[in-house]
Amino acid sequence: MEKCTACNKDLQKIDVGLSKKLINRGTTTYFCIYCLAKKYNCTVELLREKAEHFKQMGCTLF
């Protein structure tokens, strides 16, 4: 199982998908949704909404 680079938390599919979508599709460095929110200065809820939007658009990362 992948771990968050910043806090070492176990990652879920949404965490890996958002990391790839927001950082780089080929990245091997992943962040949990909380660390991504901190990194991009936004809320966790906004990132959850964005992930759902990407999923509905057909993005295969989610």
Describe this structure in words.
The chain is an all-alpha fold. The chain has one domain (13-56). The chain has 3 helices and no strands. The radius of gyration is 11 Å and the shape is globular. The mean pLDDT is 97.
A few lines on this structure:
This protein is mostly helical. The protein is 48% helix and 0% strand.
Fill in the keyword field for this structure:
about 60 residues, mainly alpha, 3 helices
Helix and strand topology:
Blueprint: H1 13-22, H2 33-39, H3 44-56
Helix pairs in contact: 2-3
H/E series: HHH
Unreliable stretches: none
Q: Taking all residues together, what is the mean pLDDT?
A: 97
Compute the gyration radius: what is it?
11 Å
Main beta sheet: strand number and arrangement? none
Strand residues, percent:
under 5%
Q: What is the helix tally?
A: 3
Q: Say how many strands there are.
A: 0
State the end-to-end CA separation. Answer: 16 Å
Helix content: 40-55%
